[in-house]
């Protein structure tokens, strides 16, 4: 079978977990005997498109305007044009190359028109990997009114995105609640957990501990987006509360709209046990994961929808115990706690979060046991093999 995977960010230039996940999916599909191509935008191209190879996967890159780390208006305009630009640049290739299945990743919500056109061209089937219920989460967090014209604009493209899919893979059972009562899309739903390859790279740890002066520290590590949806100040307050523990350090690596807020707070409070560093490439990120002790995550307490942060896969892959807080009734809490892969509490229960952190600080045996359980959970429930098998079964 021939698969076309469509994603708005891809390797080797991307630092996003989504790019890594889609690449792992492509490699696994290829290993199972399928032909795979990636379709992805690239704002650095001088020509309208390129076709190249990355680790044995054919990559179709089409020229687009900037959609990462730009103003919200510019991003919205350029993302709106993604389907048009993809088709306009690659239509010759699409017309001369037939694909059986289209697998597309959201965010972004703007590939719906492209997928509809390709399905009509090839008479194929499509699977939407839905990782971000947008624009609903923006409304949940008070960043946009549900009566705003912009909200209705995004809702229109969300509708097209869902309509283009034969199957919609949400990332947890709780996410099905978003579609409750929606007869048009409810029958399409499938629970598709996030995934990762389970093979550990051969790395030489120690570089970052030496460089950052963390050789003898227990390091709490956070890697990924640093924005409103994560409520990163939740983790900063944790570090501040644990300031009396001289043997620990908090390290945040990433970018987002709350980086400046965090850095200003660190300076204002003169916090010595926390650093916030810029994003690094995928190889550097994996090296960091191999060196540090505890994987951190946070989800904003006002979220109504639920998600499974992709960063957790990296933590599991490197056998890190997980410490985090989530919005109310998020089933991720039960999944991780039941597997004894770490401690996950409800955002807002600061005392419990602190107590959980202290348990991990005080016992290296507990950290090792929970880290081993995290890796086992990855193999049992979040492997790329199980994800590909589920996608294929639903498309056939």
Textual characterization of the structure:
The chain is of the alpha/beta class. It has 2 domains: 2-192, Rossmann fold (3-Layer(aba) Sandwich); 207-381, Rossmann fold (3-Layer(aba) Sandwich), CATH 3.40.50.2000. It has helices spanning 17-31, 72-80, 82-96, 112-122, 136-140, 149-163, 183-186, 207-212, 233-241, 259-269, 282-291, 311-317, 332-338, 350-362, 364-381, 384-395; strands spanning 2-6, 35-42, 49-54, 57-63, 101-106, 125-130, 167-170, 189-191, 218-223, 248-253, 274-277, 294-298, 322-326, 342-346. Strand 3 and strand 4 (57-63) form a beta hairpin. Helix 4 (112-122) packs parallel to helix 6 and helix 12 (311-317) packs across helix 15. The model has no long low-confidence stretch (mean pLDDT 91).
């Amino acid at each position: 079978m021939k698969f076309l995977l469509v994603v708005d960010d891809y390797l080797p230039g991307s630092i996003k977990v989504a790019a890594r996940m889609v690449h792992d999916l492509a490699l696994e599909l290829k290993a199972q005997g399928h032909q795979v191509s990636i379709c992805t935008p690239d704002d650095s191209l001088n020509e309208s498109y390129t076709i190249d190879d990355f680790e044995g996967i054919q990559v179709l890159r089409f020229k687009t305007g900037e959609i990462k780390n730009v103003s919200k208006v510019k991003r919205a305009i350029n993302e709106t044009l993604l389907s048009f630009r993809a088709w306009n640049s690659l239509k010759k290739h699409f017309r001369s190359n037939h694909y059986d299945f289209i697998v597309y990743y959201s965010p972004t919500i703007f590939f719906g028109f492209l997928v509809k056109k390709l399905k009509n061209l090839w008479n194929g089937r499509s699977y939407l990997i839905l990782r971000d219920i947008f624009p609903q989460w923006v409304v949940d967090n008070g960043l946009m009114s549900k009566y705003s014209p912009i909200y209705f604009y995004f809702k229109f493209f969300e509708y097209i995105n869902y309509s283009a899919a034969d199957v919609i893979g949400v990332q947890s059972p709780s996410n099905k609640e978003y579609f409750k009562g929606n007869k048009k899309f409810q029958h399409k739903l499938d629970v598709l957990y996030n995934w990762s390859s389970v093979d550990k790279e051969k790395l030489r740890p120690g570089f970052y501990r030496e460089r950052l002066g963390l050789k003898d520290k227990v390091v709490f590590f956070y890697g990924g987006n640093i924005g409103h949806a994560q409520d990163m100040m939740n983790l900063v307050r944790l570090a501040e509360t644990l300031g009396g523990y001289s043997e620990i350090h908090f390290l945040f690596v990433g970018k987002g709209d709350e980086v400046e807020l965090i850095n200003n707070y660190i300076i204002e409070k003169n916090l010595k046990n926390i650093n916030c560093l810029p994003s690094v490439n995928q190889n550097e990120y994996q090296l960091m994961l191999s060196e540090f002790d505890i994987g951190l995550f946070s989800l904003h307490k006002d979220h109504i929808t639920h998600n499974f942060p992709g960063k957790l896969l990296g933590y599991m892959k490197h056998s890190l115990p997980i410490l985090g807080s989530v919005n109310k009734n998020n089933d991720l809490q039960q999944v991780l706690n039941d597997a004894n892969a770490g401690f996950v509490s409800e955002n807002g229960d600061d005392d419990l979060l602190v107590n959980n952190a202290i348990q991990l600080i005080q016992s290296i045996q507990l950290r090792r046991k929970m880290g081993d359980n995290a890796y086992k959970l990855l193999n049992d429930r979040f492997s790329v093999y199980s994800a590909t098998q589920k996608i294929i079964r639903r498309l056939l």
